[in-house]
Amino acid sequence: MKEKTKAKLEDNGFLKEVDSQLGGNMPSETTNTLKKKLGEEGYQKIAKINNPRLEEFLVKYINLCTPEKIFVCTDSTKDLKYIRESAIRNGEEIKLASEGHTIHFDAYGDQGRDKEHTNILVTKGMDLGESISTRDRDQGYTEVHEILKDMMKGRELYVRFFCLGPTNSEFSTPCVQLTDSCYVAHSEDLLYRQGYEEFIRQGSSARFFKFVHSQGEVDDRNVSKNLDKRRIYIDVTDDTVYSTNTQYGGNTIGLKKLAMRLAIRRASEEGWLTEHMLVMGIHGPNNRVTYFTGAYPSMCGKTSTAMLDGETIVGDDIAYLRKKDGKVRAVNVEKGMFGIVQGVNENDDPIQWKALKSPGEIIISNVMYDDAGDFYWTGMETPIPEKGYNHSGEWFKGKKDAKDKEIPCSHPNARFTLDLNILPNLDPTLDDPKGVVVSGVVYGGRDSDTCVPVEEAFDWAHGIITKGAALESETTAATLGKEGVREFNPMSNLDFLSIPIGRYVQDNLDFGQELDNPPPVFSANYFIRGKDGKFLNEKNDKKVWFKWMERRVNGEVETIETPTGRIPKHEDLVPLFKNVLQHDYTREEYIEQFTIRIPEHIAKIERITKVYKTQVPDTPKILFDILEAQKQRLLQAREKHGDYITPDKL
Ligand code: SPV
Ligand code: MN
After folding, report:
1. N or C: which end of the chain has fewer CB within 10 A?
2. Where residue 191 sits, what CATH number does that domain have?
3. What domain count does the chain have?
């Protein structure tokens, strides 16, 4: 790969030399094509970047997709305005009553990530294991290039430059996005740092990621028509991702989950980590701010955690982690939020609520709006009109789809897209090129019957294995398919892995090496239920868990040791519940929430061991050792105290 690139660069240098020997600046074929297709202004924008590989890429896809028009977007406000206005002009977004708010719809059935048609393209000998969805590169490449042929005919192509991570930083990864969707181009403005200048800064040696997206034919509602030809192919051999016949952000916004697959691989090669993690500052006593990262599967409370009232957000979805001077440093790969709307209400999510209810640049997708231009969603806890327009077209209460399924007012995976800079709780470190020092790492899943609400691991390896690599979660509407099925989801990152799981687990273990003090690792579970099936916690109890973890990593509270880790003491939680939530936290609540459930834990260890034994051939041996040791501790504790052990017994 590197050799190839070098050869290309040399070729180009050679051509330039020949040009000059011929007595002038005879333009190459690439230059000629670009000039012809982009016009002088567009061409000059590209020429300024001066990157032959970028130019070749552009020419290749312009020639293949044959757009009618091409707009090269720099970081200028004029160019960004053009994108925003085009989204309205061509109907991909509709203005709502509130200033700056627009609504976008995806086709019915295109409201989540399409796992089935999202594949990593692999060459011979590249075995990612059976849990990662792959396709033969030659076949996938050929298929998607056939789909892309003339796909932008009659349409405008937007060429966009962004940077993953802060600019001017070790973390910076330049990206180029080609898309014929203004909604995608506009969403990326809100979600990512502008990267045109970063491309110029990094010069012709830059390693950059490339994305080609076409929404394909659209119907009269401007939604993708040919969902059967929806394909998302990640070519890890060439740092390129193709996405066709879809609009849902998780399938189309190249820099989000598509880039994440490329970055996971790159991180693995270079010894750092790309994680499905929030980054946030927890505010302790005396203005102390302690930073945590947290990995949660989609729709399991990651954004609502990052947005906790009283704390500050660095990021809510994807983080890059690097080791620096014996410490872990993290950045938010993004600078915006693609958050879930469902369930956002004034009481539980005051900051999101206010953002959604105030003027400001926000794209809302797949909710319901009415003739007055107001919009509504399930779980907003204020009255919802009986009719309006939503992702199914004209909507009325009780409307059913072709499969006789009732269509809710908003889709459960309806999203809002905003720039974090409009939020009052934005942490000042967002764009710090060095990132923040991470003092704690949290893994959380949707687990109704096993893990306590919060628990610290014994050490880095124990945390990575029992809390990260053993993570399970019940499926949600973030992906197409059945909801509520318990699935193995290591580090909440399974959907995005582009390297074998065993190697990924080993990378995480290795990451803890050479650190002065690896950050403590915790598990969080917001979804534990009691015997009657009811949730044992309120939505906002997580505020207390984070305040407790902040105290803990600063050495201010003690713990009770259980077979699975270290849990808080009741006496430390009482004042936190009182101060943060004005709640008198009783001993009974504590006992029920923090009872160690031995049979469920043993069953979990057996499930996880089986998955690794049968599906992950390159599992590090230490994973089995750590799980087995945990099982033995559980069995011993059971001998002594029975199946369900209340914390007062320990
Ligand atoms: C997720 O599903 O984890 C998201 C939204 O953050 S998506 O862009 O679909 O990945
Ligand atoms: Mn996510």
Report:
1. N
2. 3.40.449.10
3. 3
